[in-house]
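Intended use. Records like the one below are meant for learning the mapping from a protein sequence to its folded structure. Do not use them to infer anything beyond what is encoded.
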Amino acid sequence: MRFIPLFLIPIVLLGACAPAAKPELHGYVEGEYVRVAAPFAGQLTLLAVQRGMPIKAGEALFALEQESEKAARLEAGEKLQSAASQLANLQKGKRPDEVATVAAQLAQARAAAHLSQVQLQRDEKLVLDHFIAPERLDQSRAARDRDQAHVAELAAQLRVAKQGARSDEIDAARAEMKAAQAAVAQAQWRLEQKSLRSPVSGLVEDTLYTTGEWVPAGMPVVSLLSPANIKIRFFIPEPQLAKFKIGQPLQIGCDACAKLNAHVSYVSSQAEYTPPVIYSNEARAKLVYMAEAQLAPEDAIKLHPGQPVDILVP
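Structure written out for the chain above:
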């Protein structure tokens, strides 16, 4: 200071005593909570978290009693196995021993048919030589026809035994197996809904039940706060509305924290009056527009819902 000319000293002192620039707007931190609930009722058997602890996505939160769902899953699995076995049995036909039995019967029938044919030829010759009556020839022809029909019947049975079931039966069995698979998937889903994991990373804001309590279906058990769900809410006076656009960079200040970077993520299209609780006496009773700003997750975790903040436009 001893090298500053005397006529500049008052100017320097005035500059040093000048009041700091006031923030343009005031607002507060808002949090949107993820309330995790099971779609089915049950007794709370496990609460793996406690209030205030950090948690990562995929980590266990809580579990309800699962005896009924486990039994249903086991039953569905057994039905699926039965349907699959039935389909496989229809697709591969009869067992080798059964096919061999039909083949042996066919061989016997062919031998009998051959014998009937030989007997018919012999009887035809005897009739021509007048050794037997013509009526005997009718019996021989009937026996021959009967034995040939038996051969045709057993040949058809052998083909069926080798081919397996009909296509309609196989399609019906395949449909039953698909229905069983769907039942298994449904039972597995119901079982998984009794043991829930965190859908987001963040903080456990609150636990609403304790171990042993009965939890109704759809009632939240754990409330989570993710940094991505922390935002700044503030109100823009009507004369300053044109300065704030979606994506507009902002600086957020608070007590005992450095300036944090944010950007405007929402500006209401509806005007309203200043809320009765606002962190500025000068801003009361003015026409304003509600707006929101988003911070980076690493900055959002430094703030807490309800905390008052200052909004500066760089």
